[in-house]
Hints:
By secondary structure, the chain is an alpha+beta fold. It has four domains: 125 residues, Substrate Binding Domain Of DNAk, Chain A, domain 1; 198 residues, ATPase, nucleotide binding domain (Nucleotidyltransferase, domain 5); 166 residues, ATPase, nucleotide binding domain (Nucleotidyltransferase, domain 5); 88 residues, Substrate Binding Domain Of Dnak, Chain:A, Domain 2. It is built from 15 helices and 28 strands. Strands 3, 4, 5, 6, 13 and 14 form a six-stranded mixed sheet that branches. The longest helix has 31 residues. It is globular. The two termini are 47 Å apart.
Amino acid sequence: MAKIAINIATGSLQKDEVIVGIDLGTSNSLVAIIHPETGKPVALKEHDTEGKPSSSLVPSVIHFLDSGDVIVGTEAKKYLVSKPLQTIFSAKRLMGKSFTDVKDHRDQYSFKIINDNKESLVKVQVGEKFYSPVDFGALILKELKKRAEHILKTPVNKAVITVPAYFNDAQRQGTRDAGKLAGLDVLRIINEPTAASLAYGIGLHKNENKTIAVYDLGGGTFDISILRITDGVFEVLSTNGDTYLGGDDMDMAIVRYWQSQLHISNETLHENKVLAQSLRLQAEEAKKILSTQQAFKTKIEAGELTLSKEIFNELIKPLVTKTIDCCSKALKDAMLSKGEIESVVLVGGSTRVPLVKEMVSEFFGKPVNDSMHPDEVVALGAAIQADILAGNNREVLLLDITPLSLGIETSGGLMDVLIPRNSKIPSGAARQYTTQIDGQANMRISVYQGERDLVKDNRKLAEFNLTGIPGMPAGLAKVEVKFIINADGILKVSAKELRSGVAQEIEIKPQYGITDEEVEKMLMDSVTHAKEDIALRALTEAKTEGEQLLKTTERFLQKNADHLLPEELTNTAAAMQALQLSVTMDDKDLIHQKIEELNKISRPYAERIMDNAIANAMKGKTIG
């Protein structure tokens, strides 16, 4: 087993800069800071012409104008109905997801999600261009950065960004990439429940010991976290939830109800994006009104829409029950009873719904704590966390963190991050890789430290070869690369082929000596070159995807050419030629377009051949 021991130096932080806290939400996003005079967290608000503060919330909506310009926020919301294909909403729900992950929820979106059945990040087509969830996150963050700079009259380059506790590595990395693309040095990605409890003032004093539940129901995600706070140290005992459950689903339940009332089919909604968006927006309005009133009534072109509070509660009860089931699981995982929870904190705009408050209070057997603005509480907590990172609050203990990301080189010279910077120490991560060539017996593992997307721009820490991999077809070998950083910041890297158990014993001398200045320079470079880095990464990934599809299609044709119609063969050859040509050009959108065209041509006959193969295999067999 190859083991590399490396001392990871700690990074320093200038204290005279503004570090903002950002809540990147499904429905709304906002920025908060610690007020320099009061020392209290405040959400940043624009002021109107009369000097009155407006809302702190920026709707997480992006509109692509015909001119090619992009608008974000309240102005973009105006186009939700009139230009649904060019207006993106609830993008956070797509973060870190592939098409396979979201295909069952496609009808919730009015924009075009590309059906590529791939495990890579989902793609959205707007006009002739293709975007990833990271691109959308970056556009929202860029708007928040601009807004903060306008209000504070100072550059804003450093931020703490919150994510649901339930977010996996891909979703966290996507959020981090979005921040980088927006020109922000993301100092820490923190869990929303931790941020919320900080905002409520829980855990800010060293002598405080408390066990709390943070129930966070937002527009697109639900989280329940059980936290134990002991002498200023936050420990997440358990977390549960659903990254596909939130206020958006309440809206969709209302839409489905109105569909049945007005006899509108799913096909009609799928084809008529304007009608789909109108119904969704009216459902959102009904949800808000029914939180304070008994009935909702309005008219749209398709007919009259009515909804009583009683029916609304019936429609959403299954969704709220799902959240309560998650609460039960979280308690079980934490090995605690309801009675041991001292405080239940509510977070997220969807907790304004009375039925939610009632059912949560009933489940935990105590009144809920919703005294703070549910939309602002997470951003306020992120601002407190930013203040702690700036060294202004010594009361709360922060565990040591890695100052720079750690990863390995993958195809195309890309950096694949296993442990993102600012991960808590001790920390560990493992990921599986595979061979690219038939019969490949060796795999080179190159370990890098840094924030750039191409390894050539990062610092190489070590390299070793895993040899003796048994001869297998490309893609069959499974090599697990494991990174572990111990409490002293020493990194150990190991590699093992899982099918055969082959592991390599190679000792590599530790490398020391990365200075604070070098850490700062690497961070600055990653921000300065963020745009070109991410563009280059997207282009490299598109080229790799295109080349893989060409190889796969070629292999498929060699085996199944006899089963294809002459016209299918001609069209496939033309599409392959077009894709081959696009891969030689530096145009990511063109490559995605040609990939989509080849997929469109090959999907029908690939499915037909697969169906026939299954039918033949089943002949003469009985199931019992």
